[in-house]
Amino acid sequence: MANVLYVKVNPKTDEASFSARLANAFLDAYQSENQTDTVTTLDVYNENIPFIDGDVLSAWGKAASGQELTAEELAKVTRMTELVDQFLAADKIVFSAPMWNFSFPPLMKAYIDNIAMAGKTFKYTENGPVGLAGDKKVVLLEARGGVYSEGPAAELEHTQSYLRAVMSFIGITDFQLVVSEGMAAAPAEAEAIFSKAEAQAKEVARNF
């Protein structure tokens, strides 16, 4: 039995979100093949996802010198530890997110800042950083209004390339991608475009 963590990154309803619809199709297909697996949803727009702010930076500095943290500092770093521990406890991670302004929504970056934690998911050595996240599988289910996988806008894609790099940095190389793109550029064809990505998501899910 595997532990699956679904990280949902969209404040829209599922019906109004192409990325959430893609994830739902993926998870339905996955669970039909893996009925004993546990799927836990982390909806970053409805959960406490700390930003690296003044309190967090202060807490890290104090912790390094053995100083006492304020209640606010302690609450934030405790929550960050909870999130990275949840990530590490998962065998497989499913991300669903849109592209906004050539990158991920801000809470996706905030979540990554929580799980890219020295001593937890990576460590520094004399030979450089080493990933500690273990043998996990990751899939990103992404929706983009334009086309960024090829063509003149490809250099503006800073989503899957970023997440793939972060996962590799923390030791995860089993990374798969399903993208539905171009729906805003060709609204009359949006559902047809999505249907192709949905079929791909279901196929990937069966072997995930």
Automatic annotation (TrEMBL):
Q: What is its EC number?
A: 1.6.5.-, 1.7.1.17
Query: What is an example of a GO molecular function annotated in this UniProt entry?
Result: oxidoreductase activity
Q: Which cofactor does it need?
A: FMN
InterPro entries for this protein: Flavodoxin_fold, Flavoprotein-like_sf, FMN-dep_NADH:Q_OxRdtase_AzoR1, NADH:quinone_OxRdtase_FMN_depd
Quaternary structure and interacting proteins, as annotated: Homodimer.
Say which family it is in: Belongs to the azoreductase type 1 family.
Enumerate the PANTHER family for this protein.
FMN-DEPENDENT NADH-AZOREDUCTASE 1, FMN-DEPENDENT NADH:QUINONE OXIDOREDUCTASE
Q: What does this protein do?
A: Quinone reductase that provides resistance to thiol-specific stress caused by electrophilic quinones.
Q: What is this protein called?
A: FMN dependent NADH:quinone oxidoreductase
